[in-house]
Amino acid sequence: MYLDYNATAPLRPEALAATHEALRAVGNASSIHQHGRDAASRVDQARRQLAGLLNCSAGELIFTSGATEANNLAIHAAAPLRKLIVTSAIEHPAVLEAVRARTADAPGSLVILPVDGEGLIDHDALIAAVQEHEAALVSVMLANNETGVINELGSITDAAHAAGALVHTDATQYVGRLPLDLNVLAVDLLSLSAHKFGGPQGVGALFIRRGTPLPQLPLVFGGGHERGWRAGTLNVPGIVGLGAAAEAAHRLLDDEAPRITKLRDLLENELLERIPGSHVNGSRAPRLPGVSSITIPGAPADALLASMPHVAASDGSACSAGAPSPSHVLLAMGLSRDAADSTVRFSLGHATTEQEILRAVYATVRAASQVRAVMDATASS
Length: 381
Ligand code: PMP
Fold this sequence. Notes:
Blueprint: H1 13-24, H2 34-54, E1 61-64, H3 67-78, E2 84-88, H4 93-103, E3 110-113, H5 123-132, E4 136-139, H6 154-162, E5 166-170, E6 189-193, E7 204-208, H7 236-274, E8 279-280, E9 291-295, H8 301-306, H9 328-332, H10 337-341, E10 343-347, H11 354-380
Parallel strand pairs: 2-3, 2-4, 4-5, 5-6
Antiparallel strand pairs: 1-7, 6-7, 8-9, 9-10
The protein binds 4'-deoxy-4'-aminopyridoxal-5'-phosphate.
The site of 4'-deoxy-4'-aminopyridoxal-5'-phosphate has 14 residues, from helix 3.
């Protein structure tokens, strides 16, 4: 039972077919002969497919190696113009570490805003921070990778713009999961990653709104690809797979989102009813359809997952898996260290079935009572 879509989603069949076909073809998208022109036209098509999903123009998209690079590029390029970077405590390390690195030699130039118990950013604190400093870069994620909690960015973006700030959002977990219209969401920069919505790993994009006053400061220098923003031979098969996944997500989203929400609710209702003391983090906030962060007190997540090896879920975000520290997201939401360590993240997506959910419920309920029994016995011996 694969319930770890936030770590990576299975390839959509459309993406697999398109990537496979592109892998069989020869051609560098920069070459001027027919093979090169064919590769370039595949890339153009993928750019249009992604632009269709986001309702932006194809010329506003830069292909990257993924969201980590897109976040780093956005922050790297936007920071020098800006006196202050405002971000939140629940960002992915690909934002938090990038802003720390960018502001390391300018003490006081980084503001990390707290979140409430539901994982929502305090809008007033954010607005006050951008108003206090004449020019800032605001980088706030759209949906959190651990809880699925969605931060409403409309009013944040309006207030930030009014105060002369630029707004970047890490929308990696949101894109392809819920409809997103860049004509409505007025952010200046947005990062995404193909492998979260059924495209291949190792490819993503940065949206840069036309007219955004941004110096062209690439991280990778070379042959001037991607209009000078990101040098290096284009990953044509990856980009083609991203485009096909974007098109499929665009077409299927309206059916998928309610179906996945129903399965997520089934999972949560069954687990909450059968596992005494369990609770869902961020359940009162708007959330992505397929994400459930469940705390099972008395059952450390690593032990729980080890005792149900057929359920592929996560004990935090995959990017921080293996690190001994508890989830910074859950701690920021006010969970104790013990509660954070006893939290499992299930994430569902386009190929998840009801049967998988029912089997995962059965396995989790069993594992929780086994682990709790062992913990109780250890505590009393
Ligand atoms: N941001 C968020 C919110 C993510 O969940 C991830 C992936 N875990 C990333 C950035 C990094 O994406 P990529 O794997 O494409 O580098």
